[in-house]
């Protein structure tokens, strides 16, 4: 693939992505989700309780 073709493909992909994002951001629920504070991380480690008993 030639350099000019690659540049053209990247520019068209960027234009499509921009269009998708603009349409997506018009949705009120998407905006609300972006403003929401994320939940705190929860450890999936089943042994953390045992470790805290042993090592404090």
Overview of this protein structure:
By secondary structure, this protein is mainly α. Helices cover about 70% and strands about 0% of the residues.
The computed structural class is mainly alpha
User: What is the CA-CA span between the terminal residues?
Assistant: 61 Å
- The rough form would be described as elongated
Low-confidence stretches: none
**How many strands appear in the DSSP assignment?**
0
Instruction: Provide the helix percentage.
Output: 55-70%
The gyration radius over C-alpha positions equals 23 Å
- The helix/strand order is HHH
Largest sheet: none
Residue-averaged pLDDT:
83
Biased composition (Basic and acidic residues): 44-56
Region (Disordered): 33-56
Helices, strands, pairings?
Blueprint: H1 3-25, H2 28-35, H3 48-55
What's the short version?
This protein has three helices and no strands.
Task: Give short descriptive properties of this protein.
3 helices, 56 residues, mainly alpha
């Amino acid at each position: 693939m030639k350099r000019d073709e690659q540049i053209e493909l990247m520019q068209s992909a960027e234009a499509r992505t921009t269009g998708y994002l603009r349409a997506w951001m018009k949705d009120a629920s998407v905006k609300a989700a972006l403003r929401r504070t994320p939940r705190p991380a929860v450890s999936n480690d089943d042994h953390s309780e045992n470790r805290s008993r042993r090592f404090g």
